[in-house]
Amino acid sequence: MTRRKESVFFMAGVFAAVFCFCAAVFFAGYRWSERLFYDKMAAVAGAIPGSKEVIMQTLKGASAKDLAKGKEILGRYGYYGRLPGEEPGLLFFAGSLLAAGTGTAVLFLFIYRQKSRLRKRAEDLTGYLRQVEEGNYSLFPGKGEDFLSGLEDEIYKTVLALRESRETVLREKENLAKNLADISHQFKTPLTSLSILSEVLLRRITKEEDAKAVRKMEKQTQRLAGLTASLLTLSRADAGVLTFDIRRVPVSELLEVSLEPVMPILEEKGQKVRLAGEKKMMESLTLYCDVKWMREALGNLLKNASEHSPAGTEICIRVWDNPVFTGIAVEDEGTGFSKKELPRLFERFYKGEDAPKDSAGIGLALAKTLIEAQKGEIRAENRREGGARFLIKFYKNM
Q1: 78 pLDDT more than 70
Q2: Reduced to 3 DSSP states, what percent helix, strand and coil does the chain have, rounded to the nearest 5?
Q3: Reduced to 3 states, what is the DSSP secondary structure of residue 61?
Q4: Kind of pairing between the strands at 314-321 and 325-331
Q5: Which of 63, 131, 296, 330 is most deeply buried (CB count within 10 A of its CB)?
Q6: pLDDT at 366 over 60
Q7: 315 forms bridges with which residues in the sheet?
Q8: Rounded Cα–Cα distance for residues 181 and 168 (Å)
Q9: Mind spelling out the 3-state secondary structure of 97-157?
Q10: Cα-Cα end-to-end distance for the chain
């Protein structure tokens, strides 16, 4: 039996029960009035036994004239439409009240039962959707046929579509990861060959002009290798196949490995790096991250600070810690950001007003992608005293 039929039968049963109860109460009241009338007439007949034939004849069929005359006589003694004795009103009132109370209680129980069912169904649906959110696409345990059954069917159809879509996306990501690995290998082979050929040419060439040309070619080859690696990293991050080895890393170690590849650029421009923060805190502070990718991200920020700062200036790295997050800031003494370019700094392939001619515009975008993939946060701003600042925050208990 479906729940709809069950509800119909239940309501019909409630109506029948209340109807029978009320009918019984009213029938009992009618019988009580009839008995009272009989007792009063018996008392009248007993009081005047000599007129019993007249009384019986009148009860069987009284004329309108006799009925009017009798009402007039009764009115002289204060009887107007009611016989003296027990009042039936209290009984009728009590019976009606009891019937109404019974019907109300039954209806309340029915509504409460229906609400409880709806609440339970809603909890089941909520729990099922949470399982789907966690990746469990099992069949929804249906609870029968009612007006929510259609909703359950539609939810399950949507879940099936989501599962198929998720499986398709996962297969596409796996294929993309394989393709990216193949492309990376294909790029590395000719770039390595070009680098080796440049070294061989430098050994054999005797003219300085030819040597300069080869060195430029080698520099462009290295630049091309860096751009290729950055583009492949962004593509792998977009595909969701970029893996991270998250572990507790001392901040001092992270800064040291991040500065290492940038130091030749800083030395070439005569720029210095200053670490700002308490020495004890710097030595004891740790960060949960992937050293390899954080080194890439911080290296891009330091390189950007160097490129946008005059020669002989200072780049400051500030580190601080509080109960909410651990912060790292990279500050320079350059011209800062204009209002126009500040909102677009982390867009891919966007080059600022003072960007070098050979800039591809992917360094800051890559840094943002790598930091956010490790549950971090980054933003850029101008310093009050001049220059630019990049703020990195890693929230605790994430």
Answers
A1: no
A2: 65, 10, 25
A3: coil
A4: antiparallel
A5: 330
A6: yes
A7: 273
A8: 20
A9: HHHHHHHHHHHHHHHHHHHHHHHHHHHHHHHHHHHHHCCCCCCCCCCCCCCCHHHHHHHHH
A10: 51
Selected residue with higher pLDDT from 240 and 84 = 240
Q: Quick check: helix, strand or coil at residue 32?
A: helix
Can you tell me the distance from the alpha carbon of 280 to that of 305, in angstroms, rounded to the nearest whole number? Answer: 27
Q: How many residues appear in the chain?
A: 398
From the list 306, 320, 297, the residue with the least C-alpha distance to 273 is 306
Of 392, 389, 373, the C-alpha closest to 381 is 389
> Which residue reads 């800039």 in tokens?
359
The yes-or-no verdict on residue 341 having pLDDT over 60 is: yes
Q: What is the helix (H) or strand (E) element at residue 236, kind and residue range?
A: helix 208-239
Return the SS3 of 320: strand
Residue type, 329: A
CA 151 to chain centre: 20
What is the spatial distance between Cα 199 and Cα 218, in angstroms, rounded to a whole number? 8
Query: Which token pair is 227?
Result: 């751009």
